[in-house]
Design goal:
The chain has eight helices and 29 strands. By secondary structure, it is of the alpha/beta class. A hairpin with a 2-residue loop joins strand 25 and strand 26.
Length: about 450
């Protein structure tokens, strides 16, 4: 999971966003591959190429309900002079023993059924009288209701060229072809392909298990009543959802009170189901910010390669951050600030790439683009800090949403992008081209 603890630094050192992210990605390692059943592998990343063992389709089959015929027998057929053929039986999908279609003969054939020997093409049932002798029909009668439809004669009113309405063996993929390559994320279409070529299991890197917990005695579970000085816990819900969106299996832990021993015990209990732990709150410099105190002694914190380092980053929002590994398995832990916007921005910049790295993906970052700033006035930014403002992106332009306050959850709900203001800029005028992180 992780190879080493983060590099240490002077407590007064102001880390850049890039330094902090680089340290995280240098420490976190992809999870070990495992063999999973197909549906359990959804959302996971393949670790090996998958070769097609059998062609798709595995045999020539009909793409229509109709009649399997010889080309010569229907050449020149018309409504005035239809071809009249003897019906020798039915060919249904999944049928093993096949009829032989000789000169002047035909077999009713269903969609997906194998093309019988002797037949060269398929005539759709709509081009025939369906064996009723009453002109063109719109479909076949169910065999259970009219078994005699597989006997007698049928009138064919249009000719068909060779292999018309026939899906050729291997026309989808051929045996020996590469179906999927290593690094592919398995979504529904990929699962369908694996099932179609007969693969019951695949070797993948599993989706990482992420445990999320909020800290703060003021936090109340949504749905409960608020007391004086209390607020609802939104961070743990936001980050748990964000972890799932990033591809993880995420577990939300109820808010933990501002007590170091309780927090320490809770974290130790959760380690058994975590490939990555995320806390939010309690990392600043207040007298009740107990995360630092608690994480100094979690698990084997004194063991070589373990420990959490708390840092100040040259960014807004999200200046206080913590990162390291804890417990006997050196489980990575990211400690995020408690303000809602700060925690979410921190997740997007640092936790999401860590999750994607655990999954074994090559591209772990949100897409970025350049956009023209549309705003009523210039944006201001603190000198020496990289600022991330919420915005709405459309058609090459981005508009700020809400103010710079790190508590403004309502504005965050309407944002689909982050506007990046570099450290060396204190003001950005409307019409300026800016970097934008697209949040999907």
């Amino acid at each position: 999971m992780s190879s080493a603890a983060p590099r240490t630094a002077n407590p007064d050192h102001l880390w850049s966003v890039d330094e902090h992210l680089e340290d995280i990605l240098a420490t976190v390692r992809p999870l070990e591959p495992i063999e999973l059943q197909l549906l359990d592998a959804q959302g996971c990343v393949l670790v090996e190429d998958v070769t097609v063992p059998v062609s798709l389709p595995p045999f020539d089959n009909s793409s229509m309900d109709g009649y399997a015929v010889r080309v010569a027998d229907v050449a020149g057929a018309s409504e005035e002079y239809p071809a009249v053929l003897e019906v020798v039986g039915d060919v249904a999908a999944g049928q093993a023993a096949l009829l032989h279609v000789g000169p002047g003969q035909t077999a009713r054939i269903m969609t997906g059924a194998p093309l019988p020997p002797g037949a060269e093409t398929v005539v759709p049932v709509e081009w025939t009288d369906g064996g009723l002798g009453e002109g063109p029909v719109t479909g076949m009668r169910a065999r259970a209701l009219a078994p005699q439809g597989a006997e007698g004669h049928v009138h064919v009113y249009r000719p068909a060229g060779a292999r018309a309405h026939v899906r050729a063996e291997g026309s989808d993929v051929k045996a020996g072809d590469r179906a999927l390559e290593a690094g592919t994320v398995l979504g529904p279409p990929q699962i369908a392909l694996l099932a179609a070529i007969g693969r019951g299991t695949v070797r993948v890197r599993p989706r990482p298990r992420v445990v999320v917990m909020s800290t703060g005695s003021e936090l109340v579970q949504p749905g409960e009543g608020l007391g004086s000085g209390q607020i609802y816990d939104s961070n743990s819900f936001a980050l748990t959802a964000a972890a799932r969106d990033a591809g993880a299996i995420s577990y939300r832990v109820g808010a933990v009170a501002d007590d170091a021993e309780t927090l320490r015990s809770t974290i130790e209990d959760q380690l058994v189901r975590a490939d990555l732990m995320v806390t939010t709150g309690g990392v600043s410099v207040g007298a009740y910010d107990v995360v630092k105190e608690a994480l100094s002694y979690v698990g084997d914190a004194d063991e070589a390669g373990s420990g959490i380092e708390f840092r100040k980053l040259a960014m807004q929002p999200g200046k206080p951050q913590g990162f390291g590994s804890i417990g006997p398995d050196h489980t990575p832990l990211l400690a995020l600030p408690g303000n809602p916007v700060s925690s979410y921005v921190s997740f997007e910049l640092f936790v999401r790439p860590a999750i994607r790295t655990l999954m074994g993906l090559d591209d772990v970052h949100r897409p970025r683009t350049r956009a023209k700033l549309t705003a009523d006035k210039a944006l201001t930014s603190p000198k020496g800090r990289r600022q991330f403002l919420r915005g709405m992106y459309a058609d090459g332009a981005v508009t700020p949403v809400g103010g710079a306050g790190s508590h403004l959850v309502a504005a965050l709900a309407h944002a689909d992008a982050l506007i990046v203001v570099p450290e060396d800029m204190e003001s950005v005028e409307p019409g300026t081209e800016v970097e934008v992180v697209l949040l999907g």
